[in-house]
Amino acid sequence: MDVAQKNSSRIAGPLHVHDLDECRNIQKGSVFIIASGASARDFPLEKFAHVPMITMNGAITKFIGTGIKPFFYVCTDQGFSRQQPELFSEGMQLSERVGLWEDHIWHTTVRPRGELYLLGRAPKLSWRDFFRTDKDLVRSRKLGNGRNRTLGFSKNLKRGFFDARTVAYLALQLAYHLGFTKVFLVGVDLNQAVSRFYEAPGGIVSPCRLDEHFHTRIVPSFEILSKYVMNKDFQVYNLSDISRIPEELVPRVEMDELDRLI
């Protein structure tokens, strides 16, 4: 569908927005999720250029100048495009597909070069949901009051995604939606005390609130992934040896095991 221009001073002309059904189950096999943790710094991107990659936010830095195009770039932090406009622009220009909030589109002057998909949150958990099975949305308990009180995992992003306060968890839901069956996490360290791999001393540093949400949203979300989603048809491996994700939830693998697993 075409989205009418809302602000002529921003993006000239209508944008074509692709329906999320168009990219559902279009892939299979392996995918890398490239995040911003320090451990991603030494990942040999070019060696695995033949494998599709999903990336996010400033991790696009890893792709600049390589000629490798991310299969998908996602950004749900509207503050990122203001704080790091150059990196956000690179993500929009280099990637084959881009996933953003609709409101994000109207607060940026950058037109995505690849296919554009709009993201939304999964609907709130109702009492009725406790007593029925939903094949697309794996839900868990409520977290008190507020719009983001439900934990879960979405197998169909047309129904929305669950926010775990780390965009890497959205990328996992996207990988499932796309049809990939084996996911390798790169740079999903989730360590607020260590700088992102692309950040330099004295440079621009985006805010980080991982510690605030680590035990209340992040770990419980990965518990849902591990218990209800991961199986022989959807395997997830962690390549970071400094990741805070418990190994009993997502197994860690060494780089020398990759060729065999892929």
Low-confidence stretches are 2-11, 144-148
- Major beta sheet, strand line-up: 1-2-7-6-5-4-3-10-11
Gyration radius (Cα, Å) is 18 Å
Distance between the termini: 36 Å
Helices and strands, in order, run as EEEEEHHEHEEEHEHEH
Strand content: 15-25%
Mean pLDDT: 87
User: Which fold name corresponds to the CATH topology?
Assistant: sialyltransferase cstii, chain A
Structural class, by secondary structure, is alpha/beta
Q: How many extended strands?
A: 11
Which CATH architecture would you pick? Answer: Alpha-Beta Complex
Report what the structure shows.
The chain contains 6 helices and 11 strands. The protein has a single domain, classed as sialyltransferase cstii, chain A (Alpha-Beta Complex). It is an alpha/beta fold and 262 residues long.
List keywords for this structure.
9-stranded mixed β-sheet; alpha/beta; 262 residues; two-stranded antiparallel sheet; sialyltransferase cstii, chain A; 11 strands; 6 helices; disordered N terminus
